[in-house]
Amino acid sequence: MKTHERVRDIEAFSAVLSALYGGLLGAAPWEDFLRGLVAWVDGTYATLILTAPNTGKPGTIVTPDAPPETTEDYAESFFATDPFRGLPEGKVQSFSEFVRGEPSEIWRDFLEATGGEQILGVDLRFDSGFEARLRVTQDRSRPDFGPEHKQAVQALVPHLRHAISLFERLQSSGAEHGVYHGVVEQLGLGAIILDHDGKLVRANAVAERLIAEQDGLGLASGRLRITARAEQQLVDRMLRELRGAETPETLPLQRFRIERPSGRRDLSAVAKPITAPAFLRSGKGAALALFISDPGQGASPDPEAIRDLFQLTRMEALLAAALAGGASLVDAADKLGIAHNTARSHLRSIFAKTGARRQSQLVHLLHAGIPELGSGPAV
To answer: H-helix or E-strand containing 80?
Structure first.
């Protein structure tokens, strides 16, 4: 191969890899990669299927630019009987070398409708139990796939394996984040994340409502602004300290109240440094988390939210919610129809699971003190 041809080939391969990894955070993951793969091997369509084994329908199927009815037809009627599956793990195969003999009549009809038997495929299986199937098809208007096309797809296999593993981790992290995000909102807590310059990075629905009210909290040029000067200075000082801190997780959290000009009850706030790698400690990196509760809401924490967050039993969660609502241990036991000694036993278990050591501390934790649980996971 001449030097200029080798350079073009490397550039084309690099473009496919860029689309593969770059698309993981996009709105339509895999599509640009599959389009690039089609162009690279001069195919017609490329398909990626993510599915649990031995199921009747695919979990995810992506075939960019193919007629939607063809993809739907395959998923509904042909996926379960596809003879081109169960390939040797990680090894690119052609349809003709894997499927010996004549395929069934129904499958021949599908191949006829989609352009013929020129298909290259590879199956990848993952420890978490799902598998990925990559397929590249060729219609009859183009030359048949040759050994060089198989080699080209085979060169992508380790990269595809890494990309799918990263995608799996991103999806799992996103799902876990969604659970905890929802639980925090059910507990009635406003959660705000600021960067090192005090600009708003993220806020949950509760925090957005408090900011929109412009009653003690607000935004100015994207920066969080607290009406009370002393509290604003406290947050500013924490941000300055975080810029130069080698170990931000060792800086203490700060508790304060936010006075509301309307005369409504003060907001309770906890400011907690965010643990992040050193290279992310720049102006736009997440630096400080604020957890804000509104005592004027008058709502007790949801027992199901408490149960999910602290892994309590149903009765422990009901008891914790009753205590957070202002009931004494005796009153809570009567309300729940359990003996006082049983309630005391449940309370000891709640203390062990939440890290609280006193009933008053537990109540504060449930309303506004989630950071007391410790450093927790990095945000």
So the answer is: none
d(Cα 189, Cα 191) in Å, to the nearest integer? 6
Q: Measure CA 24 to chain center.
A: 12
Domain CATH number, residue 308: 1.10.10.10
Residue 139 near residue 43 (C-beta atoms within 8 A): no
Spatial distance between the Cα atoms of 119 and 74, rounded to a whole number of angstroms: 15
Q: Do 282 and 163 belong together in one domain?
A: no
- For the stretch 294-317, pLDDT in tens is 876 655 667 877 887 788 898 998
| Pair (215, 291) in one structural domain | yes
Highest mean pLDDT range out of 6-20, 29-43, 163-177?
29-43
pLDDT digits (tens, 9 = 90+) for 57-72: 888 899 998 888 888 8
Domain that holds residue 241: 187-298
As to burial, measured by CB atoms within 10 angstroms (0-12 exposed, 13-18 middle, 19+ buried), residue 233 is: exposed
Among 41, 61, 58, 53, smallest CA distance to 136 is for 41
